[in-house]
Design brief:
By secondary structure, the protein is of the alpha/beta class. 42% of the residues lie in helices and 14% in strands. It contains 16 helices and 15 strands. The strands form 3 sheets. Strands 3-2-1-4-5-6-7 form a 7-stranded parallel beta sheet, with helices on both faces. Strand 5, helix 5 and strand 6 form a beta-alpha-beta unit. The chain is globular and about 75 Å long.
Length: 466
């Protein structure tokens, strides 16, 4: 592909440790290596984007996930956003809110459009803005840029609003159906799994490209001078057994199942109990309610699992915090861990899974839907727990899985062989060359529309003197 473009990513936030931010980083790296010029637009930048200099970034605070407007409209429009919350929304107030959203979306679109004109951007790459209603102003703005300004847009959908129970029974169904995502044939759509592709084809009659989460297996996480101090810094002993949950704390991750698994493992192997620590590396998720976090803490205490929440020491890039303490990346945490628990009931794909494999750390995984459809038969060697749940809703942990975990932890030879086999299998299926090939194909297929958008943008930026 010889044609080179100016491409601008747009998202509620970038430079963070969430899955969307991590995938954007990889797309930026690949697109830059292919010779494209990359820009970034976000409500906030949690950290620096090394491959996108500051002059190529635009911060639009109205797009933030936690803006006052976003928090207010979520509470009123989504009555199940917080358990027990029931918004009292009159029809008059509902219409006023939607009108306000439309106005703010138009203002944000105007701001972004000026940035696109000034920098002669060819195409927007919208990251989940029109799949999840967590930046409603962002979703409205991108929709207006596509439908009113006729900007070429590639929508990269990581998950969809109809997949989350907290967005069900909402008071803005018609708008969500219209813009999340739009189905105009001049737009391009990308999803991250075959299941999501089937879902989008069925619900929206849109035929998307499938680009799975990918990982840089050529530059995997390793122990080095920087992260060698992790255990000492965080108060762990060298012989502690670290069970790591390398994710955010959100209900769909089913962290309670990981805690119960660790508890059962301790009961089966009591001689190891005093050495075991269950570590969660990332922060509370984007939900407004924090009851899940306190519930996890209470559960761990009740079943005798030593829980460590270390999100305040983990960032997307290495550095120091306000107290001058070292900040580690999730990859640094991974290479210092003994085994990873990853038991979600639902996952768009599985960034943490790929990072774990790249770090050559043993993995315990539940067979969530996308794992079964897109990952399961690719050669991964791990402790696999079937997604069966008891009458209380807890994952059923077979006895033989505990034995497999023990072998991974206690037998370095087994650990080395099986993690290396997993590394090679996942590298072939989900390495960066796979991402490069797919992005080249998408830009090639969408090239005519991108060039047409370039011409339209050029004309709209022309002024005439009379």
């Amino acid at each position: 592909m010889n044609q080179k473009y100016k491409l601008a990513f747009v998202c509620g936030k970038l430079g963070d440790v969430d899955g969307v931010s991590l995938e954007v980083d990889k797309w930026i790296e690949v697109l830059g290596s292919l010779g494209h010029e990359v820009y970034a637009i976000a409500g906030s930048f949690a950290s620096d984007l090394p491959m996108v200099p500051e002059q190529k970034r635009l911060e639009v605070p109205e797009l933030c996930f936690d803006s006052d407007f976003q928090k207010n409209i979520e509470l009123l429009m989504f009555p199940h956003i917080i358990p027990g919350n029931r918004s009292n929304l009159s029809e008059h107030n509902r219409k006023e809110l939607l009108e306000d959203l439309d106005l703010k979306g138009a203002e944000a679109a105007d701001t972004i459009h000026r940035f696109l004109l000034d920098n002669k951007i060819d195409c927007l790459i919208a990251q989940n803005t029109n799949a999840m209603p967590m930046t409603l102003i962002g979703g409205s703005a991108v929709y207006k840029l596509a439908s009113e300004y006729k900007m070429s847009v590639i929508f990269h959908h990581h998950d969809f609003w109809w997949e989350r129970s907290r967005f069900s029974g909402n008071h803005m169904e018609d708008l969500l159906k219209e813009i999340m995502p739009p189905d105009d044939p001049s737009l391009e759509h990308v999803v991250i799994s075959s299941y999501a592709a089937h879902n989008l084809r069925t619900i929206k009659r849109v035929n998307p490209h499938i680009v799975p989460n990918c990982e840089d297996f050529d530059h995997p996480p390793v122990k080095d001078e920087y992260n060698s101090t992790f255990r000492m810094d965080l108060g762990f002993k060298e012989d502690d057994i670290l069970f790591l949950q390398p994710t955010r704390i959100v209900p769909r991750k089913r962290i309670e199942d990981s805690i119960l698994l660790v508890s059962q493992f301790q009961m089966k192997y009591p001689e190891l109990k005093e050495r075991i620590r269950f570590v969660i590396s990332l922060y509370q998720g984007d939900e407004l309610d924090d009851s899940y976090v306190t519930g996890i803490q209470s559960l761990a205490e009740s079943v005798g699992v030593h829980l460590d929440l270390i999100a305040d020491r983990v960032a997307s890039i290495r550095g120091v915090d306000a107290q001058g303490r070292k900040l580690y990346t999730n990859r640094d945490v991974l290479v210092n861990s003994d085994i990873v628990t990853y038991l979600p009931i639902w996952e768009g794909f599985g960034n943490a899974l790929l990072e774990t494999v790249a770090a050559r750390v043993p993995l315990i995984v539940a067979t969530y839907l996308v794992y079964k459809t897109d990952i399961m038969n690719r050669g991964l060697e791990c402790v696999e727990i079937r997604d069966d749940y008891d009458e209380k809703g807890n994952l059923i942990i077979p006895e033989n899985c505990l034995g497999q975990i023990y072998q991974f932890i206690q037998d370095p030879g087994v650990r080395a062989i099986r993690t290396e086999n997993s590394f090679n299998a996942m590298k072939k299926a989900f390495g960066m060359p796979v991402l490069e090939k797919k992005l080249e194909s998408i830009l090639g297929a969408y090239g005519d529309e991108i060039l047409a958008s370039r011409r339209r943008l050029s004309k709209s930026n022309t002024t005439f003197a009379v």
